[in-house]
Amino acid sequence: MADLSTKYLGLNLKNPIIVGSSPLTATLDSLKKCEDAGVGAVVLKSIFEEQIEGESDAAVDDSQEYLVHADAYGFMKNSSKERAIDEHLTLLENAKKSLQIPVIASINCRENGSWIEYINRFIACGADAIELNHYIVAADRDVDGSAIEKNYLSLVKAARKKVSIPLSLKMGSSFSSLSNLLLKFDQLSIDGVVLFNRFYSPDIDTKNLSFTSAHMLSSEDEYAQSLRWTALMSEELRYDICASTGIYTGETVVKQLLAGAKAVQLCSALMKHGLTRVSKITAEVSSWMDAHEFTQISDFNGQLAQERIADPSRWERTQYMRTIMGGKKD
Ligand SMILES: Cc1cc2nc3c(=O)[nH]c(=O)nc-3n(C[C@H](O)[C@H](O)[C@H](O)COP(=O)(O)O)c2cc1C
User: Fold this and answer.
1) 17, 19, 22: residue to mutate for ligand 1 pocket, most atoms within 8 A of CB
2) What is the pLDDT of residue 16?
3) Ligand 1 close to Cβ of residue 46 (< 6 A)
4) How many Cβ atoms from other residues are within 10 Å of residue 114's Cβ?
5) Could you tell me which of 88, 71, 169 has the C-alpha nearest to residue 127?
6) What confidence score (pLDDT) does residue 318 get?
């Protein structure tokens, strides 16, 4: 019987399936269901600094108390913010008490935000690791690409100073030189990156000429971007890669492990098909390993990464040249 255990961020996981930060990891009840379904770890729904700030502003404004006690404005705002943070910390604390699997806390943060001040509270509540969830829509015409990369680097640097437990960054793929940036994270002693987050995207409702949200959930052919970058970088980095987006089947998990991922994160597949999908995936990985006579993941992990194959250019190819010219399909 194949052994599916793996090590990610220094944590021992019974298998490489992690439930990604999402509504599936937003309550204690759903977290317990994830554990019962057999996953290796969970990432809690992100705490959004912006939302907390916004909610505390709204709560204070709604109460209008400060019109009577104007000097109480700052105090009320702070205590409302504290309540929102406390709610999140309570979830983490309860999850740590109730679950046996590792619990990773996720923080959506801004470069100079106050998140850095409360990161220690997550650690005190027993988080097994911290996942930073950071994304900048590069829409500011005055900010060039290197400034955006610097923003990511200074965020990781500041977090690394504060975080003594394992630290990872969940990021998007839109960088002009992703491989260079990923190597720079290595110098900052990060423990892992999640490649890639899939973001909320606005769409247009042509019937009502209004805004709507684009497809919220991924589809199962969206894993290719993450697979390519995992394969390109996994052998060069000292930290772990966790693959994410479009992972629906055991076969895709096997592909990501062959490319060098240490673990994978799932969200859409479980939201669409339910948590029973977890045992289906682990059974598929297990029977593939049996068929190839692999007894543990390290037997084949990274076997098809760029550095380990005879023709490394295969992972860099971007054009369908031969197919267009009527040659061999490749
Ligand atoms: C409804 C919903 C809420 C999400 N919330 C978060 C979040 O709070 N933090 C985060 O890092 N990612 C969040 N994500 C992104 C997922 O964790 C995941 O990275 C993304 O959906 C791609 O993986 P998938 O193809 O398995 O869905 C959310 C995704 C969805 C669909």
Assistant:
1) 22
2) 98
3) yes
4) 14
5) 88
6) 82
Residues of the chain with pLDDT under 50: 66
Backbone angles phi, psi at 108, to 5 degrees: -90, 120
Q: What is the distance in A from the centroid of ligand 1 to the CA of 290?
A: 32
Give yes or no for residue 88 CB within 6 A of ligand 1. no
Nearest protein CA to atom 8 of ligand 1, as residue: 46
Question: In whole angstroms, what is the distance from residue 159 CA to residue 148 CA?
Answer: 17
Name the packing angle between helices 178-187 and 145-162 (round to 10°): 30
How far apart (Å, rounded) are the C-alpha atoms in residues 285 and 35?
18
Domains of the chain: 6-324 (3.20.20.70)
Residues 6+ apart with CB under 8 A from 253: 16, 17, 247, 264, 281, 284, 285
Tokens representing residue 260 in the block: 């060098």
Q: What is the pLDDT of residues 19-56, one digit of tens each?
A: 999 999 999 999 999 999 999 999 999 998 776 666 65
21's CB contacts (< 8 A; 6+ apart) are 43, 44, 45, 46, 106, 131, 133, 170, 267
